Amino acid sequence: MADLATSARRVSGLADFAADTTSIGGVTLADAGPASRFVLRGSEAAAAASGPFGVAIPTTSLRAGEGSGRAALWLGPDEWLLLGAAHETAAIQSALEQAMAGVPHSLVDVSHRQMGIAVEGPGAALALNAAVPLDLSAEAFPAGMCARTIFEKAEIVLWRTGPERFHVEVWRSFAPYVWEILDVVRKENAAAA
């Protein structure tokens, strides 16, 4: 019998939806793919974690820092979501734990709990605003801004990565729900145009 621990493979929660990445109504949806995801807590942890993580952990509210394929998203006064390449999970965790050994903190691997959806195009903000109660205009929510918010009944982390690009972090169980609503909205917007 095969060892389940070594034969198990993570499958995207959007496998049934993400095959078609056609732009509809000025919006393209895509599965952001697997990633390392950690929730870091601790007011002193940001300074200790920035160097080994390779990205300055933002201390300004609602901001994200990124570079070298990694990102740190501010979620609260002492909480951040850290994103990196999927194959780096163990290395990131080890480096951060060593750097923060004497610092009060919590570092939790949430790589399997969450997934990302990329929402892109000139209609991206409008499509997201069908279910997100924030002002997503470029003036109010510029590139580099992130926020923990709601998408209908799902809690998400929304990050504007460019003028017409957003990254949605959502719990795996809610990903199809968020995808389907975005798909319906973009189709309705296309029909109304």
What does this structure look like?
A hairpin with a 2-residue loop joins strand 3 (64-67) and strand 4. The model has no long low-confidence stretch (mean pLDDT 92). It is globular and about 55 Å long. The protein folds into two domains: 16-34 and 113-193, Probable tRNA modification gtpase trme, domain 1 (Gyrase A, domain 2); 35-110, Heterotetrameric sarcosine oxidase (Alpha-Beta Plaits), CATH 3.30.70. The chain is α+β, with helices and mostly antiparallel strands. It has five helices and ten strands; from the N terminus they run H-E-E-H-E-E-E-H-E-E-H-E-E-E-H. Helix 2 packs across helix 3. It has helices at residues 4-7, 45-53, 89-99, 124-129, 175-192; strands at residues 28-31, 35-41, 64-67, 70-76, 79-85, 106-109, 114-120, 146-151, 154-162, 165-171. It starts with a helix and ends with a helix. A five-stranded antiparallel sheet has the order 1-7-10-9-8. A five-stranded antiparallel sheet has the order 3-4-5-2-6, with helices on one face. This is Sarcosine oxidase subunit gamma. It comes from Alsobacter soli. InterPro entries: SoxG, TrmE/GcvT-like.
If classified by CATH, what would the architecture of the largest domain be?
2-Layer Sandwich
List SSEs in N-to-C order.
Answer: HEEHEEEHEEHEEEH
Contiguous uncertain segments of 5+ residues? none
CATH class of the largest domain: Alpha Beta
Whole-number radius of gyration?
A: 17 Å
